[in-house]
């Protein structure tokens, strides 16, 4: 008997049951994949860094003159048990002009070789690299392995030949490199065999890297910073490597946020559907009570029905969640070694089981009112026939100028707020969801983001490197290269100004004995006053310096403190003039005055050279013309430069916007269709009565449409302040991970007009399709009206 009742119910309400079934699949799909990916991505960085044997501390020296002192110190600490192990290896320093690629006998210059380039051999048991399958990297003589990002940006393929200063090496591996694989590190490592490295070593300049694993890294880190060894130009902690992948994790974090929002939507719709289906079946419940069935027996009917729907839907969602998990982390796994999502299949099963139990709990919760309803009341549709309040707040006499569909739609929402609350919340989440990637992209394209990377938004063009055989080793050579390039621009008819951002590693401290090394930035050229400061002022005098907020907090310094800086090999007193926030060196850096002389300070690198060209051409056209005039240069705009240095996240989010909008639109149309079907099923009596008194079919449909549009518009208004809250608690922390807070940029027309407008159109279309069935409602349905 029970099976026959369920079978007839499935057939009678097949459309509602089917939509509910689809939402169970969606809820299971997103819950399983999101929870699985939360576990995978949260452990991915530590898993990757540990498997690659990234050291607790890594420090770089530019000469061998202090080698004995360094290794004596490390051996002493190893004997004391403070250090577990250490090792040393060399990096060959490359110039981008040393690089060429050869394919099919044709030599092509590398187009995108930004950042510092190095060659290394895997000759120590630290900073290991892996192939794309996660296996330890193996290279034969005259073979080379390149990172996936470098190969993708330069359109290189396995089998191509890379020419390093005349040395031909065959590209045989795409490499996953934990320590130097992230774009934001600013160092690209090419890997070769030990024999190949030894053959190349005499022809190139070298850096020396020391890797240290310690029982308590903080002790060694403090001692290394405190002892004065001039050749140490930089010290990097293990956590810094993990932070370098923060932008790579942004896409995964956004997918997780999207998955959680879809779970909320699915559960809200699920509860709404359950309540409505129970209320629609009040008459059947009354009959069952009359023939003697107890409340628990009636509840079992519904529990059995939804158990069948939920179990099948959860199983399908569980199977679909496995490939979705892999897709959601694909952009991150390109640069990282990650555990497979399938390895956590047990978590997916637990989530699916949790949804089954949750839905059954909903069913039981929604049927609790059966205890309070008598058989007669249930037969009358759950209505008692009495009114305990009137609708003075929205009476017809006060709204006589409103069209009938508009009045009815607004009246329904105002007088039944609780009924439409779930729908408003669901639409609201959908509208907020679309603003997350949109605001992320707009923030990345903003002028403020450019300044966080020490770029001038007013600059037309950025050129990474000048056409010189070698990189400048000091500021004097850099300025000379800048002047020569400006002269070449003038010869081509381009009157240009230029500024550049040289980078040094300079030691600062309160006393001579305790100086810590910080990446130090100095603006040189024609424009040197575009950077902003949170507190104080930019350093203007020779004895002034500014520090990032993170560096000030780490050192316990305040504006006005006098410190000692070792510049040009001489200790000199400096005054802290200001505090700033940026993304340089993970938010821990210093800024020098443009007028201070650093000609004897070794130039670690220069971040960029910015061109200011007064031209009637658009920036895009100017960029194209410059590229033709100087074919061997790599010109770009600020946004392209930023996007390259954060791993192409902007492009990934841009590509995600339209598919995500389409997916959201499809989901919200499905929700609207389901809700409208339930509304019509509940209001058959009222619709039949309206038909009987001559209200046209189009007017009735317009009433239903107006009501749904008002719900959507209310949701859009509520979503505006909530999206600002989501910016503060979702997006800001993601951007702040790299060491600097940034103001989230909102394009109001896009975020609150264009994209929500697309969703609104989807809601209107779904409502019109769902209300087509009103034509089939017969006047006899008035018998169901109380």
Notable traits:
6-stranded mixed barrel; 12-stranded mixed β-sheet; 50% helix; 786 residues; elongated; single chain; alpha+beta
Mean pLDDT score: 80
Spans of at least 5 consecutive residues whose pLDDT stays below 50 are none
End-to-end gap: 31 Å
Gross morphology is: elongated
- Percentage of residues assigned to helices: 40-55%
Strand % is 15-25%
How many helical stretches? 24
Structural class: alpha+beta
The main pleated sheet reads as:
12 strands, mixed
What report would you give on this structure?
- The chain is an alpha+beta fold and 786 residues long.
- It has 24 helices and 23 strands.
- Strands 1, 2, 3, 4, 5, 6, 7, 8, 9, 10, 11 and 12 form a 12-stranded mixed beta sheet that branches. It has a 6-stranded mixed barrel with strand order 14-15-21-18-20-19.
- Helix 2 runs antiparallel to helix 12 (345-366), helix 8 packs antiparallel against helix 15 (417-444) and helix 10 packs antiparallel against helix 12 (345-366).
- The longest helix is centred in the C-terminal third of the chain and has 40 residues, at 697-736.
- It is elongated and about 100 Å long.
- The two termini are 31 Å apart.
């Amino acid at each position: 008997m029970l099976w026959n009742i369920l079978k007839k119910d499935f057939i009678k309400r097949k459309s509602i049951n089917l939509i509910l079934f689809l939402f169970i699949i969606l809820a299971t799909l997103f819950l399983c994949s999101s929870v699985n990916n939360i576990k995978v991505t949260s452990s991915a960085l530590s898993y990757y860094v540990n498997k690659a044997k990234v050291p607790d501390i890594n420090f770089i020296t530019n000469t061998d003159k202090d080698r004995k002192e360094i290794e004596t110190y490390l051996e002493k600490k190893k004997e004391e048990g403070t250090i577990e192990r250490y090792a040393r290896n060399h990096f060959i320093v490359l110039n981008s002009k040393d690089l060429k690629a050869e394919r099919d006998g044709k030599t092509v210059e590398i187009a995108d070789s930004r950042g510092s380039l190095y060659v290394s051999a895997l000759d120590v048991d630290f900073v290991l690299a892996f192939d794309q399958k996660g296996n330890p990297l193996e290279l034969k003589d005259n073979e080379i392995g390149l990172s996936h990002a470098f190969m993708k940006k330069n359109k290189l393929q396995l089998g191509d030949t890379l020419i390093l200063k005349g040395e031909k090496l065959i590209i045989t591996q795409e490499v996953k490199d934990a320590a130097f694989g992230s774009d934001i590190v600013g160092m690209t490592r090419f890997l070769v065999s030990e024999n190949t490295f030894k053959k190349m070593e005499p022809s190139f300049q070298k850096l020396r890297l020391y890797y240290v694993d310690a029982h308590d890294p903080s002790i060694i880190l403090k001692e290394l910073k405190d002892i004065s060894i001039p050749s140490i130009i930089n010290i990097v902690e293990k956590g810094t490597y993990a932070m370098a992948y923060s932008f790579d994790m942004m896409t995964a974090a956004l997918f997780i946020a999207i998955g959680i929002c879809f779970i909320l939507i699915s559960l809200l719709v699920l509860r709404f559907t359950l309540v409505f289906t129970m209320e629609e079946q009040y008459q059947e419940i009354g009959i069952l009570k009359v023939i003697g069935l107890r409340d628990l027996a009636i509840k079992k009917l519904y529990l059995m029905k939804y158990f069948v729907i939920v179990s099948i839907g959860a199983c399908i969602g569980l199977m679909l969640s496995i490939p979705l998990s892999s897709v959601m982390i694909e952009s991150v796994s390109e640069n990282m070694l990650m555990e497979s999502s399938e390895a956590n299949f047990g978590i997916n099963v637990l989530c699916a089981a949790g949804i089954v139990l949750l839905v059954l709990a909903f069913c039981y919760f929604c049927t609790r009112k059966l205890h309070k309803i008598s058989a007669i009341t249930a037969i009358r549709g759950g209505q008692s026939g009495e009114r305990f309040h009137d609708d003075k707040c929205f009476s017809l006499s006060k709204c006589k100028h409103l069209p009938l569909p508009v009045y009815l739609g607004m009246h329904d929402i105002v007088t039944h707020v609780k009924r439409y609350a779930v729908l408003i919340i669901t639409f609201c989440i959908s509208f907020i969801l679309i603003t997350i990637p949109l605001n992320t992209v707009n923030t990345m394209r903003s002028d403020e983001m450019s300044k966080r990377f020490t770029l001038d938004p007013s600059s037309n063009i950025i050129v990474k490197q000048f056409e010189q055989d070698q990189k400048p080793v000091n500021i004097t050579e850099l300025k000379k290269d800048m002047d020569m390039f400006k002269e070449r621009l003038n010869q081509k008819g381009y009157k240009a100004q230029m500024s550049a951002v040289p980078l040094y590693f300079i030691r600062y401290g309160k006393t001579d004995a305790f100086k810590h090394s910080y990446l130090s930035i100095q603006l040189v050229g024609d424009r040197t006053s575009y950077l902003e400061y949170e507190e104080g002022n930019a350093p203007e005098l020779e004895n002034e310096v500014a520090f990032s907020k993170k560096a000030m907090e780490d050192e316990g310094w305040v504006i006005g403190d006098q410190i000692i800086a070792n510049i040009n090999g001489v200790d000199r007193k400096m005054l802290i003039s200001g505090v700033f926030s940026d993304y340089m060196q993970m938010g821990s850096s210093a800024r020098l005055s443009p007028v201070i002389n650093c000609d004897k300070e070794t130039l670690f690198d220069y971040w960029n050279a910015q061109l200011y060209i007064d031209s009637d051409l658009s920036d895009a056209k100017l960029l194209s013309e410059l590229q033709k005039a100087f074919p061997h240069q790599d010109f770009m705009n600020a946004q392209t430069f930023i996007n390259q240095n954060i791993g192409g996240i902007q492009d990934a989010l841009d590509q995600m916007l339209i598919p995500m909008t389409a997916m959201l639109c499809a989901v919200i149309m499905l929700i609207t269709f389901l809700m409208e079907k339930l509304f019509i099923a509940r209001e058959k009596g009222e619709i039949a009565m309206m038909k009987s008194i001559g209200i046209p079919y189009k007017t009735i449909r317009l009433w239903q449409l107006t009501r749904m549009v008002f719900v959507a518009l209310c949701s859009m208004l509520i979503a505006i302040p909530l999206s600002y809250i989501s910016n503060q608690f979702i997006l800001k922390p993601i951007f702040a991970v790299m060491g600097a807070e940034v103001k989230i940029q909102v394009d109001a027309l896009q975020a609150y007009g264009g994209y929500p407008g697309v969703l609104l159109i989807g809601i209107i279309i779904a409502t019109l399709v769902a209300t087509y069935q009103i034509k089939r409602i017969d006047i006899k349905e008035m018998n169901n009206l109380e």
